[in-house]
Design brief:
UDP N-Acetylglucosamine Acyltransferase, domain 1, alpha/beta, 2 domains, 8 helices, single chain, 355 residues, seven-stranded mixed beta sheet
């Protein structure tokens, strides 16, 4: 079996962070989402993985390399334009051959991994297996209508009036029949080859498409609020460990991970939280559900329910920073200059809340 990761999207819903970085490389609990996907596929016993890349391809290649750090083999498959998930399958034919494969969207995080799913598919007669989960707003997803016997009746992409709350979560397993399906369909109104249309074609011609309903949590990390939600869920599953230094005046409460070379000085860290390698926290409070990536400097402030990326500096704030996603090399400081004023340089689509 092979793996196929789709990592070509531009991530417009995460602007301005994704103006300068691939959305799949934004970390959840201090690990890029794409790395988590690679590990999930590897842990399921798949070592031959193709990654479909687009405009952010050079950054993805640099971050992932040849896959040796995960003991897998990575093949890059360029997609010249975002023409749909089924198009990504179509252009991957040379890599996939006639092998069964798992396709995983590179910005999804799912509880429990996919090992049981792949084991089930590998030993079954299924031509395809799709992962579904119940969602509150199905109109934003591809959804599946099931028959009384539990089999798939119809798949619909982002229905205006959904008849089901079972959403496709972005994890699919296929055999070689999927290639006949992607050749048989036409682009949708969006100008894309929809994977829902390809799977529907498989259903219509009588192939065995098995729906698997996932009951744990699942997050599509497409928006800042989703990134924060995924971060909170993953933090609760990480075993605590302290590899950095914590001085006698500091207090660690709950499940906290502190990376190598990190320094905690006269501060309170309340978990679940993670502090990255080489980060310094001084005279500060770090509250629950916070991830601070490597080589940051946090001093004389309070931070809670945030993701802060590498090499950022937050110093001397008189109000708590919370519910925030902070990019790389960001500086948030109190200016010593008078008169006192807010001074900002913000990218397009930035959002700032000021008291």
């Amino acid at each position: 079996m092979k793996g196929l990761i789709l990592s070509g999207g531009k991530g417009t819903r995460l602007y301005p962070l994704t103006y300068t970085s691939a959305k799949q490389l934004i970390p959840v609990a201090n690990k890029p989402v794409l790395f988590r996907v690679i590990e999930a596929i590897r842990d399921a016993g798949v070592s031959d993985i193709g990654i479909v890349i687009g405009d952010t391809g050079p950054e993805i290649r640099e971050a992932v390399g040849d896959g040796s750090r995960w003991r897998v083999n990575i093949t890059y498959i360029p997609q010249t334009a975002p023409l749909g998930l089924a198009h990504a399958v179509k252009i991957s034919r040379a890599f996939l051959g006639d092998d069964r494969f798992v396709m995983f969207l590179g910005d999804n995080v799912i509880q429990g991994g996919i090992s049981p799913l792949l084991a089930q598919f590998a030993t079954s007669d299924y031509n395809a297996q799709v992962v579904l989960t119940r969602v509150a707003e199905p109109e934003h997803y591809g959804i599946a209508e099931l028959k009384a016997d539990g089999s798939i009746n119809q798949l619909i992409e982002k229905p205006k009036n959904p008849s089901s709350n079972l959403a496709l979560v972005g994890i699919y397993m296929f055999d070689h029949h999927i290639f006949e399906a992607v050749e048989a369909i036409q682009p949708s109104w969006r100008g894309e080859l929809e994977i829902t249309d390809a799977i529907q074609h498989m259903v219509n011609v009588g192939l065995h498409v098995h729906p698997y309903v996932h009951t744990g949590w699942w997050i599509d990390t497409g928006k800042p609020i989703d990134m924060l939600a995924a971060n909170s869920l993953v933090l609760q599953e990480i075993p605590p460990s302290i590899e950095g230094t914590v001085d006698a005046e500091s207090r660690i409460e709950g499940a906290v991970t502190i990376g190598k070379g990190a320094e905690i000085i006269n501060s309170v860290i309340r978990g679940p939280a993670i502090i990255g390698e080489g980060t310094q926290v001084v005279n500060a409070y770090i509250g629950p559900f916070t991830s601070i990536y490597h080589h940051c400097h946090i001093e004389q402030c309070e931070v809670e329910h945030c993701i802060i990326l590498e090499h950022s500096e937050i110093v001397d704030l008189d109000t708590r920073l919370e519910d925030s996603l902070i990019g790389r090399h960001v500086e948030i400081k109190r200016s010593p200059m008078k008169p006192r004023a807010l001074k900002m340089t913000l990218g397009d689509h930035s959002k700032v809340g000021v008291l």
